[in-house]
Write a structure and sequence with these properties.
The chain is α/β, with parallel strands linked by helices and about 210 residues long. It has 11 helices and 4 strands.
Length: about 210
């Protein structure tokens, strides 16, 4: 994984877990992404990204600990270059407030894999929009994350805790992120037909489902 610190005050704490992250990412099904996509560490996600997140009806005081992933990191292209931005300082702040064991390390790992999922589904910069992106794309990224960590946990027991943490994290995220956890539990798997057809779709998410 290629990493560059842009503005994070806690880059050294990220680096302290880099071996753990690299080991977890070694289980993704497209390892070439680790060389082609650069990861940049930042303090927080810019408002131009977070302003597009649908408003969430707060149901629990713990909701703030399980936000939409765009609050914690995002995938984009700049001048055609695929980039992942990870809001290390935001994750650190939430971790300190949450008092949840290993929240910082495990959330960073979850977000990293989730954003590599977006890179995995990126069709040369042709990304879905609107309801399709809000529901299918984000949920599919979480599904791919779960599948990656399931493979990791079956091979290396130290990832079992991360796998269970991630399932619980996704379950408590906004509904459009938690959506595919229900299908994962039903045995539905990542389908490349979504990746290959999404650039043609510009309809609400329920039309996208029937397309593939």
């Amino acid at each position: 994984m290629r990493v560059e610190n842009k503005s994070s005050k806690f880059a050294s704490e990220f680096d302290a877990h880099s071996e753990f992250f690299d080991n977890a990412l070694s289980y993704i099904d497209k390892p070439e992404l680790l060389e082609s996509v650069e990861v940049r560490l930042i303090n927080n996600v810019p408002s131009k990204v977070t302003n597009n997140i649908p408003k969430r009806e707060k149901k629990s005081k713990d909701d703030d600990f399980y936000p939409a992933t765009e609050v914690l990191g995002y995938y984009t292209r700049e001048d055609g270059k695929p980039l992942i931005y990870i809001a290390v300082d935001t994750i650190k702040s939430i971790a300190d407030r949450s008092k949840i064991v290993s929240y910082f390390k495990n959330t960073l790992a979850k977000v990293l894999i989730h954003e590599f999922a977006h890179a995995r589904m990126d069709m040369n910069g042709e990304n879905s929009k609107g309801g399709v992106n809000t529901w299918i794309e984000e949920a599919m990224a979480n599904l791919w994350t779960l599948e990656t960590l399931e493979r990791a946990s079956k091979t290396d027991k130290k990832f079992k805790t991360l796998f269970e943490f991630t399932k619980d994290f996704i379950k408590k995220q906004p509904e459009n992120y938690a959506f595919w956890l229900k299908l994962y539990d039903m045995g539905i798997v990542f389908d490349e037909r979504w990746q290959n057809s999404k650039a043609k779709i510009d309809e609400p998410f329920f039309f996208a489902v029937t397309d593939f």
